[in-house]
Design goal:
By secondary structure, the protein is α/β, with parallel strands linked by helices. The protein contains 11 helices and 11 strands. Strand 2 and strand 3 form a beta hairpin. The protein is globular, with a radius of gyration of 19 Å. The protein binds S-adenosylmethionine.
Amino acid sequence: MSDECASHERASHEIVRTRSGALAIRSLDADEVMHPGVGPMAEAEQLYVRQSRLAERLRAAEGPTLVLFDIGMGAASNAIAALAESECAPPSAARLELISFERDSGALRMALSQPAAFGLEGAFGEGARALLGRGRYETSRTCWRLEDGDALAALVRQTSRPDIVFWDPFSPRANPSLWTVAAFAQVRRKAGPRCTLFTYSASTAVRVALLLAGWAVGVGEAIGDKSATTVAAVRATDLERPLDRNWLTRLSLPKAPLPFDAPADAVKRAAAAPQFSVAG
Ligand SMILES: C[S@@+](CC[C@H](N)C(=O)[O-])C[C@H]1O[C@@H](n2cnc3c(N)ncnc32)[C@H](O)[C@@H]1O
């Protein structure tokens, strides 16, 4: 693997083997591995595509298009898993408008050097190369578009309203701006009325940031060695396991973790979220 990396001029990424045995991409700048637990293909499928019920939503969509924002495209494992679902949907299903946000295409370029390991063989590899070359890949079932550059700036420009958001930046240590109240408020402003958002983080600070940004917040599935993930929704009734009042007790601890841009009354405001009211 190091030989392959060495063949890339000033590589910003390398291919590593995760604990599960799957290959994954590590960013040298962020010093973090993408999908480090169960590996990229399994995590993309379990955490993002299956939890979001993408297949079902494509089939049940009221309009002709279902919009998915893929925040932090990386090696495109989440995007390819979504594309695969869309490509095998029946003709009566909605077309998928998949918008990937990314400021560094190095991970996808690196993944294309080992297509079998990253689900990039055949048409999916062709799609990824078209996306990198022209910023777009289209089939009768899917329109996949790249928003190249800072995701927060690109979010402001979007005219499509997402039905589903995959929120997959590196950790708050490496990508602090994407875990703030401001970032989640930005995507909440764009969200469609039944939008749901999925992320691997189950941290209290991230959940508080989502609540303060106007999302209803719930517990997502355990994946690999993560005991929980997080699901957020515009409508609390779209959550299977919304956070309840018991969860709020952790916010009364003196050192309760809060997002970087939390206002002084963050705890009070989070506790006032409609999902915690007696009426729900
Ligand atoms: C954990 S990786 C994403 C893995 C990816 N979802 C996949 O399926 O392979 C995080 C990605 O977010 C990107 N990123 C971080 N901050 C960003 C920002 N402000 N704007 C755009 N992309 C960003 C990084 O460049 C990195 O590729």
